[in-house]
Design brief:
Blueprint (H helix, E strand, L loop, with lengths): L2 H6 L27 H17 L1 H12 L2 E4 L10 E4 L5 E4 L2 E4 L2 E4 L2 E6 L4 E7 L8 E4 L5 E4 L2 E2 L2 E2 L3 E5 L4 E5 L10 E4 L5 E4 L13 E6 L4 E7 L8 E4 L5 E4 L2 E3 L4 E3 L3 E5 L4 E5 L10 E4 L5 E4 L11 E6 L4 E7 L8 E4 L5 E4 L2 E2 L5 E2 L3 E5 L4 E5 L10 E4 L5 E4 L12 E4 L1 H5 L2 E8 L2 E7 L6 E4 L2 E2 L3 E4 L3 E4 L11 E7 L9 E4 L4
Antiparallel strand pairs: 1-36, 2-3, 3-6, 4-5, 6-7, 8-9, 9-12, 10-11, 12-13, 14-15, 15-16, 16-17, 18-19, 19-22, 20-21, 22-23, 24-25, 25-26, 26-27, 28-29, 29-32, 30-31, 32-33, 34-35, 35-36, 37-38, 38-42, 39-40, 39-43, 41-42, 43-44
Amino acid sequence: MTSSEQILLETPGIALAGADAFRHTNRHSRSSSYSRRARFAVVSLLSVALLASASAVSGHQQAQAQTWSQTGSLSTGRFGHTSTLLGNGNVLVVGGRICTGSSCTEFSSAELYDRATGLWRTAGDMSVPRHAHVAVRLPNGKVLVAGGFAGTSTWNSAELYDPETGSWSPTGSLAAPRAFAAATLLANGRVLVTGGGTFALNDPSLNSAELYDPATGSWTPAGTMIAHRRIHTATLLADGRVLVASGMGGTFASPALLNGSDIYDPATGSWTPTGRIATARVFHTATLLPNGKVLVTGGSNFTSVIYDSAETYDPAIGQWRAAGNMTTARNSHTATLLLTGKILVVAGFNNEPVNSAQKSVELYDPANRSWTSTADLNVVRGNHAATLLTDGRVLVTGGNGGGSPALTSVEIFDSSSSSAPEITGASVSGKALLVEGHNFDDGAKVYLNDEKQKTSNESATTLLRCKKAGKQIASGVAVRLKVRNSDGTESAEFVFTRPVE
């Protein structure tokens, strides 16, 4: 087996046998910002209460840590599949593959997740097995699946899944066979498919693009990208244009990593170059942020290095900017925009040890450009898929790693339990109001009887201080308190009665 064949064996998770391990961990510590005198006053006032509630707080922290729960398992272990949210809130998982040793098998099967029962049922078979394909839900509710490969064959065929009938039907074929391409649903309802190429080691990446029209079921050329690329990302911007970022040119046998990014304008059908990403990468993710910027995370150089770095693209100026480092390097991971506006980055592979599947999870907060760890998955995995459900939870399916050739296990992340602030106690010290709790971020504000107070975070995530709010609360009087984080999440109302002094 050649080195290139070894690399491709379990794509999109790269094989790094014999490569050096690289460490890219960047951990940050936070310290309290209040003065020694204020700290002494706070500790004196709260020490008895904190000691009395220590067991309750410990129990709460344990409950908060359980943000992942296992749900019904797939009938077939698979990785490199697609996962698409349907209009009825259920999830369609399609294709993928399993590898045992040097032998891999691709799947034509599909499965449907029922959000009401948490169980899976079969969703029919495609006309051919597919891996490294694309899948997009169309405005009419059907799901378009196109391209991909199986064995030594790369497909130009496409087909449609109809949730109303539970059936598959053929549609127009791509002009070129494409695996490791990217697909984007445009504002006009058409689908843009970019780049990719065949699975043959010496075949070049493509620079062509095609448009699918659901009204006619046909494909038309969509111009030529500035660079040949595959294993790239394509992101629909807020203004309707599409950002195509990084990826790989050349061939699988002789890859050429790309720093360049291209912009496609559907209004003109034209491609133009834009800012250059600092770190060329493949097997990365790209996510549109609520502020209109695009966050790119992780990835690898295709051979031996996996990245912990992240960058954001600003369409207003056409430039990239560093977005800090994740807590761990990872590729073949997922990144999902939560309803809170934060990005959930899940698992993947890193080099600690070499090409090791992870179960670590972290959150990116665009408001302060920070990374924080959150609860781990129950199972290590990479090459999995993640889908945001209509209720704000995230469904993670399949993948491989940890000695498994392909996983059937499925987990759900409940973002509400990990991000919402919670008030557990309050007290008054002089003129200051002190609010205890959990999950307070740096921009958290206290609301006293629905009026916002000037608030500082005295102890990371657990203690807020309102310098003068205490003088508004008379002894023996009950007031209503709430905490609102910078992402808009709010605590439940907490009624505080100041003791009679």
